[in-house]
Amino acid sequence: MTALKPDSLLVAAGRPRGVGQPLNVPLVPASNFVLGEGMVYARENGTPTWTALEDIVGALEGGSAVAFASGMAAVSAIFEQLPAAADVVLPADCYQGVSGLAEAGERQGRWRLRRLETDHTAAWIDAAGKADLLWVETPSNPLLMLADLAAIGAAPRKPGGLLVVDNTFATPLNQRPLARGADYSMHSTTKYFGGHSDLLGGLVAARDAQRHAALVRTRQVNGAVPGVLESYLAARGLRTLAVRLERAQENAQRLAEFLQDHPAVNGVRYPGLPSHPQHELATQQLGGHGAIISFEVADGDAADALCRATRLIHHATSLGSVESTMERRSANPGQEHLPAGLLRLSVGIEAVEDLLADLEQALG
Ligand SMILES: Cc1ncc(COP(=O)(O)O)c(C=O)c1O
How far is 298 from 346, CA to CA, in rounded Å? Predict the structure, then answer.
């Protein structure tokens, strides 16, 4: 399978082999299995439906994957790997659920937390030698800053220190962190993998067998197992990820260019725009510039008004789905520090002319 291109792997991996087998792994709603060889009890060693999802993503990421009940369950499982009083480094800009979990653990005395600007590469390289966990989110949510993965991944690490990349925004089609030296590449499968706003799920791909086994053990004891329907839907979503992402990225580039020139818009953050401060790194590091745009209008009221005025673009949280969604990020608890007029637009696969017309009428 490894000789196949990623677009083909998405379609070909994680299928049963053998005459008379269904082409797709079916929904197998099972907790326990007849004892003998193979599966025993779902929480211990999975079900065929979860395994299909894990096989697809493992093949794409170049590692072995473990699926969880949600992106945050996957994040928690990684933090569970830390020794007592660990030194944790997190980006200044990252998903608020991750910073919330890290801050809560610090308050409980479980670890010490430091925040670094995503683009401060020298500080990350320096931190690598001391930290038990470097948590990198690139591109970041919602400010779309990039971490230099090649430089950070190559930096000498403290023995046993973990480098983790939240790869949710990029997807394995745009970025493969394990090949850059990360130990874990983490996903909220709720987003691009599922792609249809109908599931919650999480997944971590591990570079080596030991790290993979450690996560499986955590899933066994903490019990944050994925649902069978959710795993089925995520695997089904992955089959079309390449075409969905290609279209969404093309749309996002056009929309970012439109927004950049609009008088009611004060600033646009999109890695595909030459005005992005890390456009060069984005072009070299990412297979594509992604389908998330953050842009600013005058203030919170103007942002709220825009969310109410769009007709095709939904006023909704989350991202990575076939339908375009937009929200004012500072309205979320833990995100009050963001500019009041900052909107995050997750660009879907609608006809770009309709999306442009919708933004034009709403901004007007
Ligand atoms: C970058 C990122 N990581 C992790 C998560 C958490 O995923 P979930 O909502 O599936 O728990 C999210 C959710 O928005 C996210 O955007």
Answer: 20
- CA Rg, the chain, in Å? 20
Q: Which among 78, 93, 141 is the best mutation to test ligand 1's pocket, defined by most ligand atoms within 8 Å of the CB?
A: 141
Q: What is the DSSP secondary structure assignment for residue 330, as one 8-state letter?
A: G
Measured between alpha carbons, how far is 234 from 114 in angstroms, rounded to an integer?
Answer: 34
Output the pTM of the full model.
0.98
> Which uninterrupted H or E stretch holds 44?
helix 42-45
Cα separation of 233 and 27, whole Å? 9
Q: Is the CB of 200 under 6 A from ligand 1?
A: yes
Residues in contact with 306: Cβ distance below 8 Å, sequence separation at least 6, in sequence order: 297, 326, 343, 362, 363
Reduce the DSSP state of residue 237 to 3 states and report it.
Answer: helix
Q: Which of 55, 87, 95, 211 is catalytic?
A: 95
Q: Taking a C-beta distance cutoff of 8 angstroms, is the pair 71, 201 a contact?
A: yes
Which of 176, 180, 191, 236 is labelled catalytic?
Answer: 191
Quote the Cα angle for 258-318-358, to 5°.
30
pLDDT tens digits for 143-180? 999 999 999 999 999 999 999 999 999 999 999 999 99
Q: Give 11: exposed, middle or buried? Use CB within 10 Å, 0-12, 13-18, 19+.
A: middle
Token readout for 202 is: 């999480």
Known catalytic residue: 130?
Answer: no
Task: Please name each of the domains of the chain with its CATH number.
Answer: 6-238 (3.40.640.10), 242-363 (3.90.1150.10)
Assess contact for 56 and 99: CB atoms under 8 A: no
